[in-house]
Specification:
Length: 234
Amino acid sequence: MSKTFVLVHGAWHGGWCWRRVSDQLERKGHKVFTPTLTGLGERSHLLSKDITLATHTTDVVNLIKWEGLENIVLVGHSYAGFVVTQVAEQVGASIASIVFLDAFYPQAGESLMALASPGTKKALEDAAASGATQLKPIPAAAFNVNEKDRAWVDSLCTPHPLGTFGDKVAAIGGREKIAKKSYIRAAAYNSPSFDAALGRVKADPAWKTFAVPSGHDVMVDMPDRLVEILLEVA
């Protein structure tokens, strides 16, 4: 049976990062949407200090509304754990399965700034203190992207609007009501935040959990395995 996937990228990335996954899913007869969040990727010309987590949430909510999507598999990578959590508050009835792909799993009142690793947190604080409104991309090597794809990933990543990192999640009830919930951990990427997220959901029998031996950008490093998992949890 054909499924509908909405794949939401993380910080500094864009819809481009899903190409290897979306091509496979489409060849198998599924519908795939890979929205690029405002100010990033091919929409980097819209980067501004006014972009918030709510902006990025609305990007995805409006896609779902205007395309009339139902029974979707909503996937959030990394930073987009915040985005899909907020999307579920607004259009939860349209989501059949939610997937956190090596992603933040925020609780109500938490921001990415609060959950980030010490290194990322310092970069965010330094940028804010300097008056910057954006944060330059972290090199692909730091995310343990496979060596042959690092230059490609670095060439397409763009600065991310800083304000989105300090915005707090208002509520999480919508996320928890979704029938199918999954967390995929990229085991070759060191992240105490994502380890904590995995541990939290593993304790809940309503969740399925997976570990893949790849760097953080699973859709780049191991697209075949990611497609297998997404079809399993759809």
